[in-house]
Specification:
With 883 residues, the protein is α+β, with helices and mostly antiparallel strands. The strands form seven sheets. Strands 2-1-5-4-3 form a five-stranded antiparallel β-sheet. Strands 7-6-10-9-8 form a five-stranded antiparallel β-sheet, with helices on both faces. It has a five-stranded antiparallel β-sheet with strand order 16-15-19-18-17, sandwiched between helices. Helix 24 runs antiparallel to helix 25 (695-726). Mean pLDDT is 81; it is low at 1-14, 140-159, 291-296 and 833-838. GO terms for molecular function: phosphorelay sensor kinase activity. Pfam families: HATPase_c, HisKA, PAS_4, PAS_9. This is histidine kinase.
Length: 883
């Protein structure tokens, strides 16, 4: 027989021969309640006991010779092999223990605690012996506190090293064998037990070791009398001796029916101390849980027996239902239901459902002791023992009256909201029965709410079954829980319907409306589009494109397509991003968006080597709703070329004007020197020779002096005109009131001489050159005084704002002028009156026009002969009027 290396070579059965020892081992193996098997060195079964066969469901012939992988997973086998190799390398004596699952013949799995012992002969590994214990639910729960460390050795070491006390009795009730574990459990030597009568051993030796000796002795000896099997008898060793530890033992006893000890018994003592401690902890936990349950006041938590009678009652149940523990225990739980629910057997059905499904949840009205009703959420859970025995139910009740009332209020509010929905709305349940219909829906469906509620959609409108769009929309929505929609003409109700379906777990909400008018508009639009197309196809020098809100082209035409590399067919039905290059699409998209938002917008761009201006405008229906946009693209290549040529011409003209200004400045400047000389000599002649001139000579001299003065004034005016652009000051905020006041002071003598009346309004602040603007006011007011006619001058100065510009007006009631002369007066040296009538150089108004143009404004005159004159000019407002 194989042994572990280093094991005691003395036979386990002392001096018996091998055949007797083998027979005894066989008896012991068949007697032990654990599964035992032996594998060869390659992992193939060479022996299995009956427990292995019963547990796995295999026959002995089906296992012997098969590899252990038939029962265990590859991962578990690799783990076992690594552990065995490690123990062989270290020559460890302790037994390897594993927790794993074995596959049964019918495909199920059985959890095992496996103890392995290697078999060594002549220092060579010969295989393993495994002891497998089926881990029941009770043992697994026990293992969560602390695993029971039961040792299962090979056939050899089971007897000596397994944590099981073993005793074999002969047919005459003599102790034939006892293991070392039994010695340790009871503080005895095996010699004190062997070959003694078991009755005597129990009465004289063993029973005194137990906390309840009489119960122990009565239980064991009665099994001898009746020769019966004891499966599980728990007893406690008191541990009141120095050599005996206190422990709990589980006693098993089985008659031996064959072999050498036929008629005898085998007795097993299992140490279940850890299990009892775990059970004690479990009991404490149970008591703590029951205390916690009793302390919960928000929930009614109580137990029912299998028939539904109350067998426990917590404080929350007392508070919620109003019954004291003493008056409700033993009463049937249907007491808490309304009479209507009891009449419909709701309590009975709830228990049946809980038994069938494990639990049931219910909400409804319940009744308190005082007869008051409350809305309850109730959960009833079936309770079963580990062995599946039905023990009753756990019932948890919560008062949800406040929530239920709020839900009812919300439901009422929802009904009010739904009734105010302008679209037609109705709802159906999962069987397509109407559950809600608002007024608009009843109107369109041509049935009242009372006629529809509770009726099935397909019964009220049977022809809908044949409309695939409707049938598919409803069934797809309910099956996929995704929204669906449809639009079609429904003959029965004689209108186009647009419907949107929104599913939920309880049914479908349907929002629909009559879109007949919209469809008619669309049909009219199609006709209109045909007209558009005809017009667009003859659109000269460009292209016309109609697009919708998805920026998809619905029409493209025009003679300009001959100039670009795309045809109308390349655009119609396509989204604009799919047609144009990215640069072109980016340029035109803002204009398209603006048109769909009701704005007109234009954009210039280059495409296909040509220049275009694109105008985008919205298209509206009769109600003013925007339903599309249209773009008109004109080829402006030639126009842009002409503009560029014009710009070059203007640039040349401006350069020419600049040179002319420079020439005028230089010329006028250079003319002043000889003019001064002429004037000086004329003055000298007048002083020295005035007495020598006759009357005609004096007249001639006067003409010469006057001509020189007029020439000087004209040259100074021309210089002032040329310096407007070159010597002007930078623009800054200017207070026109201050400028006007200064000008009036300078003109005070002329005002007094003419007895003029000048009125002014409050003038604004503008952006400009103060000295030049002063010159404008000086010239216009001087002219108003000069050309007042025979009556005293009446002059009025006012202003008017338009956007970012101010319009300043100087109005008089003087002689006026012919409209045909109004453009001519702004030309240089242009005069409407002779010098005999009015003095002046004829350059003042030209200077005014030049100043105003430098300020970015315009100047004009309104006048009729004899009706006065109004000079008006515009100036930009100051950026910050408060400055």
């Amino acid at each position: 027989m194989s042994t572990r290396a280093g094991a005691n070579e003395e036979g386990f059965w002392r001096d018996v021969d091998d055949d007797v020892a083998l027979h005894r081992y066989q008896t012991l193996v068949d007697t032990i309640a654990d599964g035992i098997y032996q594998l060869d060195a390659d992992g193939y079964f060479v022996a299995v006991n009956n427990v292995i066969l019963e547990t796995t469901g295999y026959a002995r012939d089906e296992l012997l010779g098969e590899h252990v992988s038939l029962l265990f997973d590859d991962a578990d086998i690799e783990r076992i092999e690594r552990e065995i190799e490690s123990r062989l390398e270290t020559n460890g004596d302790d037994i390897a223990t594993f927790e794993l699952a074995a596959r049964t013949a019918d495909g199920d799995t059985v959890p095992f605690e496996l103890r392995l012992n290697p078999l060594i002969e002549d220092s060579e590994f010969r295989g393993t012996i495994g002891v497998a214990r089926d881990r029941s639910e009770k043992e697994r729960r026990q293992d969560t506190v602390e695993s029971t460390k039961a040792s299962h050795e090979s056939i050899t070491s089971i007897i000596d090293k397994a944590d099981i006390g073993v005793c074999v009795l002969t047919e005459d009730s003599e102790v034939a064998w006892a293991d070392e574990t039994l010695e340790r459990y009871f503080g005895l030597e095996r010699a004190d037990l062997l070959e003694r009568n078991s009755w005597t051993v129990i009465d004289d030796t063993l029973k005194t070791r137990f906390a309840d000796p009489n119960r122990f002795a009565e239980t064991i000896l009665s099994s001898y009398d009746d020769n019966i099997y004891i499966d599980s008898f728990e007893c406690r060793v008191s541990g009141d001796r120095d050599t005996v530890e206190e422990r709990w033992l589980k006693y098993q006893s089985k008659p031996i029916e064959s072999g050498e000890f036929a008629g005898g018994r085998v007795e097993l003592y299992y140490d279940i101390t850890d299990q009892k401690q775990s059970e004690g902890a479990l009991q404490e936990s149970k008591e703590e849980f029951e205390s916690l349950v009793d302390a919960v006041e928000e929930y009614a938590i109580f137990r029912l027996d299998t028939d539904g009678h109350v067998i426990s009652w917590n404080r929350g149940a007392q508070n919620l239902k109003g019954y004291d523990r003493e008056e409700i225990l033993g009463e049937h739980f249907s007491t808490f239901y309304t009479s209507a629910d009891r009449a419909e057997d709701v309590p009975k059905r709830n228990l049946e459902t809980a038994t069938e499904k494990g639990s049931v949840e219910d909400e409804g009205w319940r009744v308190r002791k005082d007869g008051a009703r409350f809305w309850a959420n109730v959960t009833i859970t079936e309770i079963r023992d580990d062995d599946g025995t039905h023990r009753g139910y756990l019932k948890v009740t919560r008062d949800m009256t406040t929530r239920h009332k709020r839900e009812q209020e919300l439901e009422s509010e929802l009904q009010r909201i739904l009734s105010r929905i302008s679209d037609a709305f109705y709802a159906v349940d999962v069987e397509y029965r109407f559950t809600h219909v608002n007024e608009r829906a009843a109107e369109l469906l041509q049935h009242s709410e009372e006629e529809l509620l509770g009726e099935q959609l397909w019964d009220v409108f049977p022809d809908l079954v044949d409309l695939d769009e409707v049938w598919d929309a409803f069934h797809t929505a309910l099956e996929t829980q995704e929204p669906t929609s449809y639009e079609l003409y429904y003959d029965t109700l004689d209108f186009w319907v647009e419907a949107n379906l929104y599913p939920s777990e309880t049914g479908i909400s349907v929002y629909f409306r009559d879109v007949t008018r919209r469809r008619e508009r669309e049909q009219a639009l199609e006709k209109s589009e045909q007209r558009y197309r005809t017009l667009a196809e003859y659109f000269p020098n460009g292209v016309v494109m109609l697009f919708n809100h998805d920026l998809e082209y619905t029409l493209a035409a025009g003679q300009g397509f001959d100039r670009i590399p795309v045809a109308p067919a390349d655009l119609e039905g396509y989204q604009f991003h799919d047609v144009w290059p990215d640069e072109t699409a980016d340029a035109i998209k803002p204009a398209l968006d603006a048109a769909l938002n009701g704005e007109e917008q234009s954009v210039e761009l280059e495409y296909a080597g040509r220049e275009w201006v694109l105008y985008a405008v919205p298209i509206t229906d009769s109600r003013g709703d925007i339903f599309a946009g249209v773009t008109m693209a004109h080829d402006i290549t030639e126009r842009k070329e002409n503009e560029r040529k014009l710009e070059k011409t203007i640039s040349r003209l401006e350069e020419s004007n600049k040179r002319l200004e420079q020439f005028a400045y230089a010329a006028s400047h250079d003319l002043q020197e000889p003019l001064r000389m002429v004037s000086s000599y004329l003055q000298l002649i007048e002083r020295r020779y005035a007495d020598e001139f006759d009357e005609e000579g004096e007249e001639f001299l006067e003409f010469a002096v006057d001509g020189a003065d007029r020439m000087r004034n004209m040259i100074e005016g021309l210089l002032a005109y040329s310096r407007i652009e070159t010597e002007g000051e930078p623009f800054e905020p200017v207070n026109l009131d201050s400028i006007l006041e200064s000008v009036l002071e300078d003109l005070q003598l002329q005002i007094e001489e003419t007895n003029a009346e000048i009125t002014t309004e409050h003038l604004p602040r503008v952006a400009g050159d103060a000295s030049q603007l002063r010159q404008v006011f000086q010239n216009l007011l001087s002219n108003a005084l000069e050309y007042s006619g025979d009556e005293p001058p009446q002059v009025h100065v006012d202003c008017d704002q338009r956007g970012r510009e101010w319009t300043i007006s100087v109005r008089d009631e003087g002689v006026g002028m012919d409209p045909d002369d109004q453009d001519r007066i702004f030309e240089v040296f242009e005069r409407l009156h002779g010098r005999e009538e009015h003095s002046g150089t004829g350059i003042g108004l030209a200077i005014c026009q030049r100043v105003i143009e430098r300020h970015g404004g315009d100047i004009w005159v309104d006048s009729e002969p004899g009706a006065g004159t109004t000079f008006s000019f515009t100036l930009p407002a100051a950026r910050n009027p408060t400055q």
